[in-house]
Automatic annotation (TrEMBL):
Belongs to the WD repeat IPI3/WDR18 family. GO terms for biological process: DNA-templated DNA replication; rRNA processing. Residues 540-549 have a biased composition (Acidic residues). Component of the RIX1 complex required for processing of ITS2 sequences from 35S pre-rRNA. Its main location: nucleus. This is Pre-rRNA-processing protein IPI3. It is found in: Nucleus.
Length: 574
C-alpha cells in the first residue's frame, strides 16, 4: 500500500497550550503520515527554523537554526540529533542536491556554501548577493542552483562548476551563470519545475505583490503575475500546470497556466501560453474566484505550503501552529490536519518520497553518518585539478552490488524493456513517443473535417476517382472518436436507424470506390497487354531486318566470288 509522509518544522515556539503533553513541548520537527492514515511518525527536539531552512534526505534531516549560526543534523534511522554544525555566519536557507549528498546553504551576508556531507569539503563563494539569501532551489538534474535574495535578484549557478577541483584556484571568486532581474522588492519564495529538460521553469514570489515565471536556462522572463497581496510561500503543481501561493490572511490562491487569463491576448494560439512571445509582455491578474478563504481568521498567515503526490491535496502551515488541508479539485478548505496545534508557527512543510511502490529498491549507496565541514582542508591542493590525497568518501553500500549472471551452461537472456517503461523512466519525453503522439493528434483533428477520398495520385481515373464522405457518415465518425479534440458535444448519441443509414451510406461509398478501382485496374491491364504486344512486335521486326541483311550479304559475297572465278577462267583461256 502506498503511503505519503511529510516533515514539518516550527520557528520561535509560542506558549504551549495547557492541554499539550510535556513530551511535545520541545519538539521542533515532526514527521507525519498524511495518506492513507494520518498521524505523527517521528519527532525531533530542540529546533527553531525559519522559512526555507529545512531539508530532508532518506537518512538525515538538516535544520538551520534561526537564532544561531549552526545547522542541526538529525539521524532519521536512530531518531536523535547526530551533530550540531557551526558556520561562520547565520544560515538563512538550505537545499539538498546530487542525490542528497550535497547541501547548499545561503547565508545572512549573501554568500553561498556548498557542503559535501560525505567528504566534509566546503566550497564558499564570495558575496553573491547584496543582502541575505532568502531561498535556494536545485533543479532536478542537480546541474543548476538558483539563489534568491532580499536584494530582489536571483542568481543561477552551475553546481558542477562550484564543485570542480579545477576551480579550486578561484578561492571563492566564483560567479553565477546569469542573474534574473525583474522584481522590485525582496524575494520571499522560489520554486523550480520538475522537468529534466531544457524547457524547465522557475517561479519566484516577491514582496512587490508579484510572481514571475522564468526560463532560467535562457535567462528569460516568461510571464508576470500580479497578486492582490504579498505572497509568503509557493508550491508548484507536480505536472507544472499551475502554482499555489498563500497570503498573510491565511488564504490560498491558485494560478493556472492554462487558464483564460494567461491566453487572453491570443486565445486562438496553439502555443503554450508561457512561451508565446506575443503575450510575454502582458501581466496576468488571476480572478478573485481562484482565491480560497480559510475556515476562520484566527489561523494567521500561511507561512509554508506543499502538494500531495498526485496534486489533489494542498497543505498549508499557519502561524497559529495548524496545518490546513485544501481540496484542489473543489477549490476550497477541507479539514485541519493537526488535532492539536504545533508549538509554534509552521514555517516549513517538506514532502517526502512516496513509500510502497512494488519495484522500489533502496539506494545503492547510503550515508550512515555525515562528515562535518572541514573548512580550508582542500583549498591548498594542487591547482591543476587533481584530487587531493586527503579527500576521502564516507559512504556504505545499502544492498548487494548488481552483478551479471554468469553461467557455463546457460546463455543469459537479454533484458528487454517495454516502450512504456522506457518512456516512464526517461528523463524527458522520447522523440519517438512525441512523433507518434503528434501523428495521432493530427489524425484526431483530421477526423472531424470532411475530406475527399482519392484512390491514387499516380493513377487518376474519371469522375469516380474522388468520393466525398456523406454527412451522416461524418457525424458518426465524430461521435465515435471520443478522443477527437474537435468532436461536437451532444446530449445523446445517434439512434440505431441513423447508425444503420450511415453504415449503408459508407458501404455504398466503398462500393463506388471499389468499382472505380476495378475499372482502373482493367484499364491498366489492357495497357500492359498492348505494351507487351508492341514490344514483341518491335523485337520480331528487328530480328527480321537482321535476317534480311544477312541474306543480302551472302548473295553479294556469292556474286563477288562468281565474278572472281569468271575472270580467272578468262585469263587462262588467253
Amino acid at each position: 500500500m502506498l503511503s505519503e509522509h511529510f516533515a514539518a518544522s516550527i520557528s520561535a515556539a509560542a506558549v504551549a497550550p495547557k492541554a499539550a503533553p510535556n513530551s511535545v513541548k520541545d519538539v521542533g520537527i515532526s514527521v507525519f503520515e498524511s495518506q492513507p492514515h494520518s498521524g505523527q511518525r517521528a519527532s525531533f527536539k530542540k529546533s527553531n527554523t525559519t522559512a526555507n531552512c529545512l531539508a530532508v534526505s532518506p537518512s538525515h534531516i538538516f535544520a538551520a537554526q534561526a537564532d544561531k549560526a549552526v545547522v542541526n543534523v538529525y539521524n532519521r534511522e536512530k531518531g536523535n540529533q547526530e551533530a550540531t554544525v557551526p558556520f561562520q555566519e547565520r544560515i538563512t536557507c538550505l537545499a539538498l542536491a546530487c542525490e542528497d549528498t550535497v547541501l547548499v546553504l545561503g547565508s545572512q551576508t549573501g554568500r553561498i556554501f556548498v557542503w559535501e556531507t560525505h567528504t566534509g569539503r566546503v566550497v564558499i563563494t564570495s558575496q553573491a548577493h547584496l543582502q541575505q539569501v532568502t531561498a535556494l532551489v536545485v533543479d532536478p538534474t542537480s546541474n543548476f542552483v538558483l539563489s534568491a535574495s532580499a536584494d530582489a535578484s536571483i542568481h543561477v549557478w552551475s553546481l558542477p562548476a562550484l564543485l570542480s577541483f579545477t576551480n579550486a584556484a578561484l578561492q571563492g571568486q566564483h560567479s553565477p551563470l546569469h542573474t534574473l532581474s525583474g522584481h522590485r522588492a525582496a524575494i520571499t519564495s522560489l520554486v523550480v519545475g520538475h522537468s529534466a529538460g531544457f524547457c524547465n521553469i522557475a517561479v519566484s514570489a516577491s514582496a512587490d505583490q508579484s510572481c514571475i515565471v522564468w526560463d532560467y536556462h535562457e535567462n528569460q522572463l516568461l510571464r508576470t503575475v500580479l497578486l492582490p497581496a504579498i505572497p509568503r510561500c509557493l508550491t508548484l503543481d507536480p505536472a507544472d500546470r499551475a502554482f499555489y501561493t498563500a497570503y498573510d490572511d491565511g488564504s490560498v490562491q491558485v494560478v493556472d497556466f492554462y487558464s483564460e487569463a494567461f491566453s487572453a491576448a491570443n486565445p486562438d494560439s496553439v502555443q503554450h501560453p508561457l512561451y508565446d512571445q506575443a503575450q510575454a509582455a502582458m501581466p496576468v491578474q488571476p480572478p478573485q474566484q481562484t482565491r480560497w478563504t480559510p475556515p476562520s481568521a484566527d489561523q494567521g498567515a500561511a507561512l509554508s505550503a506543499m502538494l500531495s503526490y498526485d496534486g489533489s491535496m494542498l497543505m498549508t502551515g499557519h502561524s497559529n501552529g495548524n496545518v490546513l488541508v485544501w481540496d484542489v479539485p473543489l477549490g476550497r478548505y477541507s479539514s485541519t490536519f493537526t488535532s492539536i496545534p504545533m508549538m509554534g508557527p509552521v514555517t516549513n512543510l517538506v514532502p517526502l518520497p512516496v513509500q510502497g511502490f512494488p519495484d522500489t529498491r533502496p539506494a545503492l549507496i547510503s550515508q550512515a553518518a555525515i562528515v562535518k565541514p572541514k573548512h580550508a582542508a582542500f583549498d591548498k591542493a594542487d591547482l591543476d585539478g587533481a584530487i587531493p590525497g586527503n579527500y576521502n568518501l564516507s559512504l556504505q553500500f545499502s544492498r548487494q552490488l548488481p552483478m551479471p549472471h554468469i553461467s557455463a551452461s546457460k546463455k543469459q537472456a537479454a533484458v528487454i524493456e517495454s516502450d512504456f517503461l522506457t518512456a516512464l523512466t526517461h528523463p524527458v519525453f522520447p522523440e519517438s513517443l512525441l512523433a507518434d503522439s503528434l501523428a495521432e493528434l493530427a489524425s484526431w483533428n483530421g477526423s472531424a473535417k470532411p475530406q475527399p477520398i482519392a484512390l491514387s495520385a499516380a493513377a487518376p481515373v474519371a469522375s469516380t476517382a474522388q468520393v466525398e464522405v456523406p454527412a451522416a457518415q461524418q457525424q458518426v465518425s465524430d461521435s465515435a472518436d471520443f478522443m477527437s479534440l474537435d468532436a461536437p458535444e451532444s446530449a445523446s448519441g445517434p439512434t440505431v436507424e441513423q447508425q444503420n443509414e450511415a453504415l449503408r451510406a459508407e458501404l455504398a461509398a466503398l462500393k463506388r470506390v471499389q468499382r472505380a478501382s476495378l475499372v482502373q485496374m482493367e484499364s491498366l491491364r489492357k495497357e500492359k497487354v498492348e505494351l507487351l504486344a508492341k514490344i514483341r512486335q518491335d523485337i520480331d521486326d528487328d530480328m527480321e531486318d537482321e535476317v534480311n541483311e544477312d541474306e543480302k550479304s551472302e548473295r553479294a559475297w556469292g556474286r563477288l566470288a562468281a565474278t572472281g572465278e569468271y575472270l580467272e577462267s578468262e585469263e587462262e583461256s588467253e
